[in-house]
Amino acid sequence: MINWDAHACLPQHPQADFTPVQRLHAAGVNYVSLNVGGDMNPVSQVMSVIAGYRATIASDPDRYVLVSSVDDVIQAAADGRMAISFDLEGAMPLLEQPEMVALYAQLGVRQIHLAYNRNNSIADGCHDLPRGLTPLGHSMVAAVNDAGMLMDCSHTGRLCSLDIMAASSQPVIFSHSNPYALVPHGRNVTDEQIRACAATGGVVCISGLSWFVGKERPGADDVARHVAYVANLVGVSHVGIGLDICFQQPGLDDTPPGVFDPGHWWPASAGYSAERPPTFTPPEVWRQLAAALRKVGMTDSEAELVMGRNMMRVAQQVWSKPQALLKAA
């Protein structure tokens, strides 16, 4: 059994401590996608983070492995190592150049969404005015497909996400998004989006972040409730886990350089409040997920699908394409 966490965040700093990754591994996680930046981060910061994370992974090969295929994930699990790849939250680090997608793929980025909460020249954020996927955005979706990178629609505007799913030639995922029907927050996804994702063959991965789960101290049962909603709507083959745990580390300042306005990215009008910061499920919730999923009526085999096999299926299909490109790099 492979447990797959589709999205987690360390400090976006080259010296970030990987102890939280060890906690995830100890809790039974075999693979995690680590965020390395997004729309609010300049390319200089993103590249510094990628270089730092890669160096940390390379310095401890008995514990970590940077993967580019599902076979790599399976082998890492067999070896007792944590499989890792990276993700980007937004298209700004692509510098409006579709060619940048393949470059990031070669550096270990295996997953991307094209807008983080706000609109850019590529796509719409979920907390901004709806326009739909731009012409350049269509080129970016094609580049993501061509590079064998997972096309993600978390943080993306509803109309734009539907455009992306219609444009993609590969399955699309929501790496850390929850049903709007259960918690009506702008970051959560509607039944229409969930159905469209399933129609691509994709997976909606449930977040454990308090704002989106609707509980101040979310636990395994809360995550399972959201999983059950998606499974009942579109089938158990289209739901996974991306707990979106954001690990803070005192002494590391990962604030994006230059002008940075948190109120722009997380607007009060959308329900965000600095006085009420989010809470996260602890990594150890992974040990409780199988039992929680059984409590909402799932069999052991269905729980395995949710906890990893669904995302393995999608990654196997999507990641298989660029292996010649990656090996030639």
CATH homologous superfamily descriptor: Metal-dependent hydrolases
The CATH topology is TIM Barrel
Terminal CA distance:
32 Å
**In angstroms, what is the radius of gyration?**
18 Å
Report the sheet with the most strands, covering strand number, pairing sense and barrel closure. 10 strands, parallel
Percent of residues in beta strands:
5-15%
Q: Looking at the structure, what is the overall shape? A: globular
Q: What does the average pLDDT come to?
A: 96
What sequence of helices (H) and strands (E) makes up the elements?
Answer: EHEHEHEHEHEHEHEHHEEHHHH
| Number of extended strands | 10
Total number of helices: 13
Helical amount among residues, as a percent range?
40-55%
The CATH architecture can be named as Alpha-Beta Barrel
Coarse structural class? alpha/beta
Class in CATH? Alpha Beta
Spans of at least 5 consecutive residues whose pLDDT stays below 50 are 323-329
User: How many separate domains make up the residues?
Assistant: 1
Describe this structure in words.
- The chain is α/β, with parallel strands linked by helices.
- It has one domain (4-328): TIM Barrel, CATH 3.20.20.140.
- Helices cover 40% and strands 14% of the residues.
- It is built from 13 helices and 10 strands.
- The chain has helices spanning 19-26, 43-59, 70-79, 99-106, 135-146, 158-167, 191-199, 210-213, 220-234, 262-265, 286-295, 300-319, 323-328; strands at residues 4-9, 31-38, 64-66, 82-89, 109-113, 150-152, 172-174, 203-206, 239-241, 245-246.
- Helix 9 crosses helix 11 and helix 11 (286-295) crosses helix 12 (300-319).
- It is globular, with a radius of gyration of 18 Å.
- The protein starts with a strand and ends with a helix.
- One of its GO terms (biological process) is proteolysis.
- This is Peptidase M19.
- One of its GO terms (molecular function) is metallodipeptidase activity.
